[in-house]
Amino acid sequence: MRGPLSWVWEEKLKDRKEDPTPVTKLSSYSKKSLQVHGTGVSMSIGNIIPFPTKKLSKIKDISREAKVRLAFLEFAQNHPVSVTCRRFGISRSTYYRWKKRFNPYNLGSLENESRRPKHVRKPSWSVGLVERIRELRKKYPRWRKAKLAVLIKGRRV
After folding, report:
1. Structure confidence by residue, pLDDT tens digits, 71-85
2. Which domain of life is it from (predicted)?
3. Is the pTM of this model over 0.85?
């Protein structure tokens, strides 16, 4: 069955020339379950992507990782989550994190976000104070921060 995102895998195959399904080790129970039940029961509760993705002009602007995330979200529309996770080699928590983050009207929502903390402390020292401490450390290498703090506050040195 060719879905609207089969071109993502075609692009991947052009580059890698190998099976698009990631190889993961399955337990014997999982193997038997897949043999008996196939890939699972098709079940869809509404559409996660409200329009055909081939027609999107922004599809070229997203990264390769975002295209793969879009592919597994589309695959999950017709397959159970456990089968989707097995096929793409991801954990359920990863699947649900990307499903929660996904905005069908903004494919940029599938891109990696910055890992930088949202609140970063600003330096409370001035450049002049830092230079003064460096000078004192060179001049008096055995003095530690407690003595230097007293001397700088009192401006004795």
Report:
1. 889 999 889 999 999
2. Bacteria
3. no
What tokens does 90 get?
A: 């991801």
* Residues pairing with 143 in the sheet: none
Domain that holds residue 76: 6-110
* 82, 11: one domain: yes
In residues, how long is the chain? 157
Is 82:38 a contact under the CB 8 Å cutoff?
no
Same domain, 129 and 67: no
Give DSSP secondary structure letters for the chain: ---TTHHHHHHHHHHH-S-SSPP----HHHHHHHHHHTT-----SS-SS-S-GGG-GGGGGS-HHHHHHHHHHHHHHHS-HHHHHHHHT--HHHHHHHHHH-BTTBGGGGSPPP-S-SS-PPP-S-HHHHHHHHHHHHH-TT--HHHHHHHHHHT--
Question: What are residue 106's DSSP bridge partners?
Answer: 103
Model confidence over 4-47: pLDDT tens digits?
555 555 555 555 555 555 556 667 777 766 666 665 555 444 45
